[in-house]
Amino acid sequence: MLPLSDLLIWSFAGVLFGSLISWIPGFHIYNIIALLVAVFGVGELMPVQAFPFFAVGAIVAYAYVSAISSVYFSVADESAVFLLFPTQRYLLLGRGHEAVLLYLIGAVAGTIILVLGLLFVFPKVLPPIYQATSPYITYFLVAIVLFMFMSEWPKEGDRGKTVKERLWLAWRQILGGIFVFFLSGILGFIIMNTNILPTTSAYTRLTPMFIGFFGMSWVVLNILSNPPMLPQKPEDKIESSIYNTLKASFGGAFGGTIAAVYPIITGGMGALVAGHMTSQRGDDAFIISQGVNRVIYYVGAFSLLFLPNLRLTRGAGAWLVSSLYTPKSHSEYIAAVGVILLASGISFLFTYGLSKIIARSFNVMHIKKISYFVAAVLVVISYLLTDWMGVVVLFVSTAIGLMAAAFNTRRSYCLGGLILPVLVSMTGHTGAFIHLLGLG
Amino acid sequence: MRGFTHYISGLAAATFFPALVADIRMGILVPVIAAASAYFPDFVDFKFGKFFARRDYEIDPAPWDEKKHYAPKLVKIKDLSEKNHYQFFAIEGRVEEILTRGSGTISYEVFDKEGNVKTITEEYNTIVFTLSDGTGRITVEAFGDDYKMFEEEFGQIEEGRELLVFGYVDVDPDGSLRFIVSDAPHPQGIAETIAEAIEKAYEEGEKIVKIHNIRLPGDVYRQFWIHLDPPKREVRVEMGPIVTPGGVAIGGDVPEYRKYGIAKVNVPFIKTYPKPTRIDSFSGPEIAFRLTKHQGKPVVKDRFLPWHHGFSHSMTMGVIIGAVVFLLAKLFGYSHATDLALASMIGQWLHVFEDQLGFMGSNLFPPITKDVIPGFKLGESGSGLTNFSTAWLMIALMIWNFNRFTDPRPIPIGDAKLLLYLIWPSIIGFGIAIVKSFRLRKEIAQLMDYYTNLEAFEEMEEVGGI
């Protein structure tokens, strides 16, 4: 293991790196770490044993600081053409800083739950439970996907004048979601199973697709909707209750843990399941649970790489790191827990301070200008990681991401890009599917 | 219970069949049909049944703008009529003539939580003018708090000025229309329509009322409550604040003088659930008013979401699902068709049983039973406690079954001990839910006792006993 001083320096470097880039809309820490590895390499500037700790710092920072981009830079226009996320509603009411504070409460709760879990629960409970349930992961995955389709809540249909009209309005949205899922799935399948992207981009071939689905599509919406930059209140005041905080923390932790432990199941899917199980209601509870969920999902999933008696590789960050160095000792596990606490403290202060600054100066620079800049950077990242075909993939996936918004369906249907090809592969139908698509 | 609770019950039901567990382990995913069967009753009701349901009265306090899908709808003056009484709209036009500018005194009634009336008198400023939009002319009136809002928005009003005005339509005794500046519909229209539906149900047997919600720009909703007050033979509608879909109030309270709508009902009716109906985000509810007997006397009773918990939520439906799954599985050559059919049937039955723990109840054995059998009242469908306790129990049972049916066992401890380790959170959750349910059951029992005594009172009054 690295000397403690080196470990602290690289962890701190990770937090700093993560904090500086995670507030920018459309940027994802995994993409940036991949870019870092691709462009600068690891082993020259940084010792390989330090890389997991650098990554922990950066991922913790992302789990905290990305609240800024989701609250302040996923801006909706006043007419709310599409349904809004609770954070966007807070922003439209001038309560963006309050939304960040609620998120931070959740993130701190998530960190405490995660650290306690890593120290006292996960090493004992996770291995046997995982042993008992891991052969059935495909079953759970299919079950969750089927539930996503079956449980889509028709947001329209009530006001149709005839039965036929009502059914069409309701099912238009449901069918739109299924369409987005399969379209994403086909794109993901093509990317995973053909040479459309260069083989040198093995670890980052899905990156442009995800940037398009979840990053670029928001950025484009910001540009198209040209939202007003409303004054924000920078006061440290929240409206919630201890009961809501506890309930949201419990639900968020539950969903985050499911997503962290089981492959392919993302934080959004975990949150869907946990939200139903704990019957959550309320914007404040939703934002708090998002904070808990994201910390446990991102940081918890990565921490499993350190867990000595299980050592699961979950998430793109863990795969990237494990390709260079996998932590082996119990002391590295304990050190990782310490880094999580340290990084959380720094990230909390950074997020809080940045939110205050942005709330005070929210209308200084219009989101449209920032969005143009970010869009250009996202294209450059895609190009650097996957060449010109990556840029093409970026445009296609952006169009699919925009479709999800236009159909008023869950944006998580875009996860079809990952889920469908993995399911096809898990069930042994890759060859048949390639044939069906006329790819070979 | 929430959808996922039912769904996970079906997932768990499949794991009680060793053959199905073995199939899942080998990557045969057909047993997921049991989970779909468990969710099927809600899927059918909310994706189809809801849209096929009859609507005898459709209350739309604030019709949507067809392009933007929120209220207020921009209308032409020529399109307004008496039918739009109390509905919330927007009109764009030119001020033709200012009729009155001044102040006066207004008296209005307010209600407390028990429905007691208090009269309030206060000074107000007002402006009355005619607005023309090329298709017609209408009198526009702003007074009280709405005048302040109007003045803040438009400043001094002069003839010839172009305006986009929000408000509700009012009808004068002579039948002419007025447009009252406001930021919400008037609740009186909702109250009157519900009262009429109750009276018609008393005459004709059943009337179903669809009440639409009020969606405003920014994906926020005007919340309102419907109080059915059988002892006073009243329907009261209370207009509330603007709320987000997550239920957070963000202000926009309406002035007291247009906060309440009250309509008298001339027939006896009872309410079966001791809370008012709240309408805000998602879609508005349907309420059926049905003529029934209470203590041997005809009375109208309410039933929330009449298309829900019918045949789809019956044990009979479970048998049909089992039979259909069996036939399809056989047709496609699935080797464990019987197990799958049984798991699917049990999954659907679990849904019915879980819903029976709540308030609505279900029509359990049609065609033998004709109407819903009341629920056990353990908790509301949205209760986090009962939902989590049930879902956790199902997760525990799945892990338990996976362990039992795997050799060697991944968790090498005895079945009973493992089950106890796994299910204790559910035992605690259900324990708390049972204790909490006593209070609500007591409230409902008291309400029914009250109705019974009330009717006795009325009978005495009829024969001159008081």
If you had to describe this structure to a student in words, what would you say it looks like?
The complex is a heterodimer of chains A (440) and B (466). By secondary structure, chain A is mostly helical. In chain A, helix 1 packs parallel to helix 3, helix 5 crosses helix 11 and helix 9 packs parallel to helix 11. Chain B has 466 residues and is of the alpha+beta class. Chain B is 38% helix and 27% strand. Chain B contains 9 helices and 16 strands. In chain B, the strands form 3 sheets. In chain B, strands 1-8-15-16-13 form a 5-stranded mixed sheet, with helices on one face. Chain B has a 5-stranded mixed β-barrel with strand order 3-4-5-7-6. In chain B, strands 9, 10, 11, 12 and 14 form a 5-stranded antiparallel sheet that branches. In chain B, strand 6 and strand 7 form a beta hairpin. The two termini of chain B are 47 Å apart. The C terminus of chain B is likely disordered. Chains A and B meet through helix 4, helix 5, helix 6, helix 7 and helix 10 of A and helix 1, helix 3 and helix 8 of B.
What's the short version?
Chain A is built from 16 helices and no strands. Chain A has 440 residues and is mainly α.
What's the total number of strands of chain A?
Answer: 0
State the distance separating the first and last CA atoms of chain A: 48 Å
Structural class of chain A: mainly alpha
Q: What's the order of the H and E elements of chain B? A: HHHEEEEEHEEHEEEEEEEEEHHHH
Q: Return residue spans of chain A where pLDDT drops below 50 for at least 5 consecutive residues.
A: none
Overall mean pLDDT score of chain B?
Answer: 90
Largest sheet composition of chain A: none
Structural class based on helices, strands and sheet pairing of chain B: alpha+beta
Q: Low-confidence stretches of chain B at least 5 residues in length (pLDDT < 50)?
A: 459-466
The rounded Rg of chain B comes to 28 Å
pLDDT averaged residue by residue of chain A:
88
Give the number of helices of chain B: 9
Oligomer: heterodimer
Question: How many helical stretches of chain A?
Answer: 16
Gap between N and C termini of chain B: 47 Å
